[in-house]
Amino acid sequence: MKKTKPDTIDTLSGGELGFLVSAVRSTIWSSIEAELQPLDITAAQFVVFNSIALGKGRTIGEFCRLLGYDSGAMTRLLDRIEKKGLVRRVANPEDRRSFLLELTPESKALFPQAKRRVQTVFKRLLAGFDEAQAAALKLALEQLLANAARTS
């Protein structure tokens, strides 16, 4: 009797996908942490800066969703960044009970350096990929996110 090799979808569905995604996320996060350490900012702080700069986040709720933090953890992170003088809270004109975050002149000056360092990490991680492989990876990750959005 000939043994058949399990197909990739069965293997990934058996837990391998979770292990791989978790390992990739952990590797990315620790690589970014190491690269940003000379600038005295963390990966989470960079996510906040980048989100503000790209217009993808300005409220605690938006940052909670981006980082997967609860509001208490997010508030503590924002307090640390604000204490460093890298973000400031401003009144939210649409909701007087909340505030928006904006970059300070210090973080605006620091952000380009941090962004270059993070891009260096991603370029290292993508070493050996050709354009077609990189496009396929992007498409696969987008499909995973779309599937997750449909099932949640």
UniProtKB/TrEMBL annotation:
InterPro entries registered for this protein in UniProt: HTH_MarR-typ, MarR/SlyA-like, WH-like_DNA-bd_sf, WH_DNA-bd_sf
MF terms (GO), sorted A to Z: DNA binding; DNA-binding transcription factor activity
Gene3D superfamilies the UniProt entry points to: Winged helix-like DNA-binding domain superfamily/Winged helix DNA-binding domain
Positions of the HTH marR-type domain: 14-146
Domain of life: Bacteria
GO aspect biological process, one term: response to stress
The entry's keywords: DNA-binding
PANTHER family in UniProt: MULTIPLE ANTIBIOTIC RESISTANCE PROTEIN MARR, TRANSCRIPTIONAL REGULATOR, MARR FAMILY
Name of the protein this chain belongs to: DNA-binding transcriptional regulator, MarR family
Organism of this sequence: Frateuria terrea
